[in-house]
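Batch manifest line 397
LIGAND: iron/sulfur cluster
JOB: complex structure
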Amino acid sequence: MRTASEILAPAGNLEKLKVAVLYGADAVYIGGQKYGLREASENFTYDEIREGVEFAHQHQSKVFVVLNGFLHDSDLETLPEFLSFLENVGVDAVIVSDLGVIATVRKFSNLEIHLSTQASCLNVEAAKFWKDQGVKRVVLGREVSIPEAALIKRESGLEVELFIHGSMCMAYSGNCVISNYTQGRDSNRGGCAHSCRFGYEIELNDDQKKISAYFMSSKDLEGIRLIPDFVEANIDSLKVEGRMKSAHYAGTVSKVYREAMDFYIEHGHLLTDKIYEWEKELRKISHREYTQASLLTPAGADSIYDEREHEDKEYQVVGVVQETVPGEFCLIEVRAAFCPGDTLELMPWKGDCVDKELDFVRDFADRPVPKSRPGTLVKIPWMQGAEPYNLIRRKCP
Ligand code: SF4
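JOB STATUS: finished
ARTIFACT:
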């Protein structure tokens, strides 16, 4: 009997957490206001962490909190208080890189510890070392293949988590200071500016020739066709990168990987036309060209993406369902303007998306709205299967 691997989605704020959980993530990872590595993501207040944990647990999902910055002594002073809060609200684990943070977590709490990919655990001996430090799970470096991850799990007895989707880091996950020198932003303290995506000019000494290239910019990871390999290798958790990405991204990756995982567990294969649909869905969210990177063999030149920062995005979220009156209307919180006559697409929790041409767009008092404004609430025609938090999107021109 096969056991499904956990689908672990990123959640940069409370809305993304709810969206990821409702679209099928078994677990989400979030950051508090300090100690994590994503200064630019909105991050959770204490109240939001409490609400997020309650919500996830009501839906049988888990919440992991990142504490994976490399901290100085002054940063550690207030950590015990934060740990005690996390333990009290029932957070399921903390994700840690720094040995000092691990020691502090063990001294002041009984929180489960997951080793961040930031610690670059790539081999069995390293995993055993971290196990001796009290770590329960290792988030392996993105340089590790699925067979290597299986060996690390078998030999160390630890749970293993491996990235299956998202942006890549050209350094050994985060062990990089390009961003510090080019932008004055420290990747190891949450400030990575993705400087590896920039174009760089190289001067060739011999003939003074200069070339300009994006030689450090990676394609994005996509491992959907390797779900059978992950499951058969008993990889405990499949991680999706992207706490700074949108609710559309969090919802889509959760839905697609959930459906593919469930299909594989039920049928024992992914030989289905649905694979094309799932891949199509993954192209609707913002992404660079996809690669399987090092999941089977070490990433090589074909993983390089030779365009700066450019991301493709086929669809744009224009609203989030707030309420529905079946047969009559959906109440939508508008994220991007749309008009009567536009065709929008509902993304249900499971199964195919539903297209609808809008016969009307109305405000609360049922007055016609010629063009909706972001941040407002409007009524649009009811769409079969719509539920609160479903995303409504539109094909980009
Ligand atoms: S600049 Fe690039 S290589 Fe460096 S930490 Fe950021 S994503 Fe990784």
